[in-house]
Amino acid sequence: MKSEIISKFKGTIYGVEIDKESIYYTVEFLLENIENRFGEKYLFQKFVEDLVEAIYRAYYKYDSFNFYEFENGINFDVKEFKKLEFQYLEDDYYFEFLNKNIKKGKYIK
Questions:
Q1: What is the C-alpha separation between 94 and 33, in angstroms, rounded?
Q2: CB 70 within 8 A of CB 58
Q3: Could you say which residues of the chain have pLDDT below 70?
Q4: Domain assignments of the chain as residue spans, ordered by start
Q5: Residue (of 13, 89, 104) closest to 57 by Cα position
Q6: What is the pLDDT of residue 86?
């Protein structure tokens, strides 16, 4: 058998490089929902960097990270951005870090 990887996936969102296609599309989905619900004032590089980092960490931490379950577990039906919470399965330090920064208003332009 002859196999060859011709091109590795690489994408960017708000200047943040993402090399896993599934993570790219999950981040894109989440950011579209945030923008539609709360506007674009929360979508800037530091928030995207922290979100991508948290998802990468969860992806590598859990043997079978389920992107669909993760995306659908987020309640976008909150009244303000500060009440938005990210989580996956059990408590995870990186999502806790992200959630604390959201609550403190660190991602507001």
A1: 21
A2: yes
A3: 1-7, 91
A4: 11-104
A5: 89
A6: 92
Q: 92 and 57 in contact (C-beta within 8 Å)?
A: yes
CA atoms of 92 and 86, how far apart (whole Å) = 10
Task: Give pLDDT tens digits for 19-48.
Answer: 999 999 999 999 999 999 988 887 788 999
The amino acid at residue 2 is: K
The pLDDT value given to residue 47: 94
Helix (H, G, I), strand (E, B) or coil at 94: helix
Count of positions (residues) in the chain:
109
Taking alpha carbons only, the member of 40, 32, 97, 45 closest to residue 71 is 32
Beta carbons of 26 and 55 less than 8 angstroms apart: yes
